[in-house]
Amino acid sequence: MTRELTALAETLADAGRDGYLIDADWEDPNQLYLSGFTGPDPFLTVYADGRTHLLVSGLEYARAKRSSRADVVRRHAEYDFQYGGREERLDMYAAFLDDVGVESVLMPARGPIETADGLRERGIDVAIDREDALTALRAVKTDAEVDRIRAAQRATEAAMAAAESLLADADVDDGTLVHDGEPLTSERVREAIEVTLLRHGCASAETIVAGGAQAADPHDRGSGPLAAGESIVIDVFPRDTETKYFADMTRTFAVGDPGDTLREWYDRTLEALEAAVDAVEPGATGEDVHVAACEVYEDAGHPTLRSDPETETGFVHSTGHGVGLAVHEPPRLSMDAGELEPGNVVTIEPGLYDPDVGGVRVEDLVVVTEDGCETLTDYPKRFVID
Amino acid sequence: MTRELTALAETLADAGRDGYLIDADWEDPNQLYLSGFTGPDPFLTVYADGRTHLLVSGLEYARAKRSSRADVVRRHAEYDFQYGGREERLDMYAAFLDDVGVESVLMPARGPIETADGLRERGIDVAIDREDALTALRAVKTDAEVDRIRAAQRATEAAMAAAESLLADADVDDGTLVHDGEPLTSERVREAIEVTLLRHGCASAETIVAGGAQAADPHDRGSGPLAAGESIVIDVFPRDTETKYFADMTRTFAVGDPGDTLREWYDRTLEALEAAVDAVEPGATGEDVHVAACEVYEDAGHPTLRSDPETETGFVHSTGHGVGLAVHEPPRLSMDAGELEPGNVVTIEPGLYDPDVGGVRVEDLVVVTEDGCETLTDYPKRFVID
């Protein structure tokens, strides 16, 4: 039993429940973490008495026995379930829990209503895990997990280099970037990034390459021709296709002179990034780190969500988030966020946005250590490509 | 109001509920279908009185107003919610439902327990949508949706061609396939497929390229060197990154002589595919189509899940599934599956498996028409590459 699952046993003891139940497919990071299994359809995982039990369909049985982290793997046929409907499926779940020997379970808050209600109707005591114990466990990485994130980060850097070299090789024609005789578009840069990711064992379909006013919306993926002198935000957050761990990095570039306003924004953003990284240490809160970034911006006269909760320009998001089996997970670096501890892996990603100016964001990935933090990102910060 | 949402209104009327509530991020296909919005964090969508209402964070507000399918978009700040915890969030949800004017809702069976329990505590009547109305709506595609699937299918075919040409160009060295002086591995063929998909506007990180005994497990993605004479199953099911619709196709190849057993399996599989496609028409059930495929195999002496529910060799899965905003969705082509109707898009993918022999699967995609079906797949079926 690993360190992490010992902590899960304590959560169950504190809650006075017999087992921890997840009903989800592998895309749910808690399911992947607890089961170690990439079943494409929803399956049950129960952790009880120091052991992990899986219930899968016959199609998944051999693979689950071979590749999952579970101590016990059972299959639907053991419960004579094959073509049954909802009620028969819930009967099977209740019988499986009986075999595991649990009468009461905790389920994650976002677990399925039908399973919770159906098990309650069958006499199982189902409570919501309000502490979100598995997500909290996932927030503290082992050295092996940090290494998996590092590997994904190396792929991310290779992809960013491919993007930067496209920008550096571009010519300017009437204000538009041109490469190999064609307008250089967000789509073309994104393709170069994602192909490079694939060649490094990672995948992403959500990469952001956004210039001009598009860069002012932090969630706009970007489309169409890129222009000289505008800021171009490139945010790459791929998943390693083998380990399933994510990395995350953002750089902002401008080809040709971006003007004084964007230059000031970029300098302030690097300053905010540095202040936030300096604030990261065990015992500091996510709020401390966020405030460190906000203060740099506010001192320079930029609005932040802290100074004006209604603002739509300035620093309109939090300073960062955990990264692991999910690209967004605890800890958060925002107001009211709790204490950091060694093994947390978080992004630090301050930025400024205004549709009339553009967007600037710079993002590094750090791991909290015993006495501060270590930056996992190894990529230069160059704004203007002349 | 579109045809589909009229049907959702009927579901609500039948259930005697005011609204249909989804709490999910865009990766939930029902959320994507109803909201038309790709919010990366969970958000609320309520359909009531012929109108769709969204509740999103401030960060998503502008993009939701611009790009979602909703009639009304509200943001957290309207409810003074910014840094609140679970209870404050549930209070906001209840206030939002009050603004929409609903006191009772249907939620999908896999909606989050916490939202259901929390709204019940706040006096909202929450019932599970046991009919799975939105998923049922999604199963019947409009012509525009079929066109999006066709576009993804064209990308899939380009990717399969890239894979097939790698196999065709390979040399054999001591039984192993060799390309450009390196062993040709599952990983290398998968990379060629996924790079081609990206260049055609699609993405996938789960492509199957599995040879030998690996091909005998329908969910094994495959790894390591590919060998001459073994069957190599290639299953490509990418998502269009813009429209979010999937396609799905499988071909099986052998480089050099696969021997009589695999040749017989391949012929039987084409026969089963043809029999199943012939059975597809409005009014036929998914079971009819599945039985058509099973009968071909059973008549030739191969076990199927129909003839032996415990079998681990032979035809060990169903004949197919719907494809749309999810890669697996209704209708199912399996025992107890209901009637097909025009606009259903389904895979037809019979196969045979035995670790001692290998695996064979061939998969086309068809759309049910008024009087039969149209095959959306335009790719040859060649088993042996000499």
Summed up, what is this model?
Chain A is α+β, with helices and mostly antiparallel strands and 386 residues long. Helix content of chain A is 35%, strand content 24%.
- The whole-angstrom Rg of chain A is 24 Å
- Total domains of chain A, how many? 2
Residue-averaged pLDDT of chain A? 95
CA-CA gap between termini of chain A: 56 Å
List low-pLDDT spans of chain A. none
Helix and strand composition category of chain A? alpha+beta
Q: How many beta strands in the DSSP annotation of chain A?
A: 22
Strand content of chain A: 15-25%
Structure in words:
Two copies of one chain form a homodimer. By secondary structure, chain A is of the alpha+beta class. Chain A has two domains: 3-138, Creatine Amidinohydrolase, Chain A, domain 1, CATH 3.40.350; 143-385, Creatinase/methionine aminopeptidase superfamily (Creatine Amidinohydrolase, Alpha-Beta Complex), CATH 3.90.230.10. Helices cover 35% and strands 24% of the residues of chain A. In chain A, the strands form seven sheets. Chain A has a six-stranded mixed beta sheet, sandwiched between helices. A four-stranded mixed beta sheet of chain A has the order 11-12-14-22, covered by helices on one side. The mean pLDDT of chain A is 95. The interface between A and B is large, with 50 and 50 residues.
Descriptive labels:
homodimer, 386 residues, alpha+beta, Creatine Amidinohydrolase, Chain A, domain 1, Creatine Amidinohydrolase, 2 domains, Creatin/AminoP/Spt16_N (chains A, B)
